[in-house]
DNA sequence: TGCTAGATTGACCTTAACGTCAACGTTTAA
DNA sequence: TTAAACGTTGACGTTAAGGTCAATCTAGCA
């Protein structure tokens, strides 16, 4: 059976679960993207699922093409409810921006995917011809 | 009416059409990713649609997350028919690899897209409540 | 013929996002 | 209680992917 997932963990465990290195996590902390839930008197950083989720969100935003700095300026809006109508409108604006970037990127990947499939089919055809032609 | 697109062009034009800078094109050339169709006696590089297509393919592979070096080692297989059955099988292997990377990336974007939509809906709800609650 | 915009090479510079290493402290299972 | 595994800070290194600048040359239109 698998090891139970602890409710609280140190940097190494968090790193393993998010598939990054501890160095990356510290780096994100320096940039203000992610801080440990708690800091023991030993100096050790302790994290929870919250931070894991945040780390994964950072990954998504990176995949979207944002720099860590850009991520730093928007990541909170994924984890704190906006205050006031203005705040909500601002958040909406940014989320909609991310949405349209995501869609654009997805569509371009879909195009590539179609091209790849055609390409593959073509080479498969060539291969079949070659194999039936000269056995 | 729009300017007609020339059958042959210099680096600036190619750059504009591919939405990159001339520097980028020269950089790709240094790395062996893209060479001009022709080189005038003046030293000017001249390109055609072929190179534009290639440049766009490089962009797709970049979006997929490949480094320029990795791209350099596979780009040709998008533009030259493989020789021999072995060659074809090899190409198929690589194309299938790209396909599964593309699909994985697309699926992760789709997840993010769904999350974004939920998030947007949530904030919209909050906003509506706030506006009807305290006008 | 003479401008102006664009091209050439070469060299050095920049930036983001970590990697690596040293010197040292902490945890924890044996 | 000690050894192995893990964590800490600090500092420096690396790599990819171009940016920038200078000095010089070319194209092509008025």
Automatic annotation (TrEMBL), chains A, B:
Location of the HTH merR-type domain: 8-77
Residue ranges of coiled coil: 99-133
A UniProt-annotated Pfam family: MerR_1
Keywords: Coiled coil, DNA-binding, Repressor, Transcription, Transcription regulation
Gene3D superfamilies named among the record's database cross-references: 1.10.1660.10
SMART domains: HTH_MERR (SM00422)
Protein name, UniProt field: MerR family transcriptional regulator
Organism annotation: Salinactinospora qingdaonensis
């Amino acid at each position: 059976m698998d090891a139970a997932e602890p409710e609280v963990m140190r940097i190494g465990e968090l790193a393993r679960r998010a598939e990054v290195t501890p160095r990356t996590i510290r780096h994100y902390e320096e940039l203000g993207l992610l801080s440990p839930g708690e800091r023991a008197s030993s100096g050790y950083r302790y994290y929870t699922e919250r931070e894991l989720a945040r780390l994964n969100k950072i990954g998504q935003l990176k995949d979207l093409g944002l720099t860590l700095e850009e991520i730093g300026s928007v990541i909170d809006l994924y984890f704190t409810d906006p205050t006031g109508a203005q705040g909500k409108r601002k958040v909406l604006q940014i989320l909609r921006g991310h949405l349209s970037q995501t869609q654009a990127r997805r569509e371009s990947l879909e195009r590539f995917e179609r091209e790849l499939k055609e390409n593959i089919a073509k080479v498969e055809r060539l291969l079949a011809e070659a194999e039936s032609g000269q056995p």
